[in-house]
Each structure stands twice: as C-alpha cells, then as structure tokens.
Amino acid sequence: VQIAQAYEAGGAACLSVLTDEKYFQ
C-alpha cells in the first residue's frame, strides 16, 4: 500500500508534467 501511494504521488506528478508538455507544445 505504501508503495502504491508513493507511486501514485510521484507517478501523478510525472504524468501531470508529461501531459502539460503535450498540451503546451
């Protein structure tokens, strides 16, 4: 559960950055 929460927090941040790049490019 802790790993999932950490992955969700870090993964969500990374995904938000990636999606932001796609939308702003």
What keywords describe this structure?
Aldolase_TIM, 92% helix, 1 helix, mainly alpha, tryptophan biosynthesis, amino-acid biosynthesis, Indole-3-glycerol_P_synth_dom, 25 residues, lyase
Explain what you see:
With 25 residues, the chain is mainly alpha-helical. The protein is built from one helix and no strands. The longest helix is centred in the middle third of the chain and has 23 residues, at 2-24. The protein starts with a helix and ends with a helix.
Write the layout of secondary structure elements.
Layout: H1 2-24
Order of helices and strands: H
The portion of residues forming beta strands comes to under 5%
User: What is the overall number of helices?
Assistant: 1
Structural class: mainly alpha
Task: Tell me the major beta sheet.
Answer: none
CA(first)-CA(last) distance: 35 Å
Uncertain residue segments: none
Q: How would you sum up the global shape?
A: rod-shaped
Radius of gyration: 11 Å
Considering DSSP H and I runs of 4 or more, what fraction of the residues is helical? over 70%
Mean pLDDT: 71
Structure summary, number of beta strands: 0
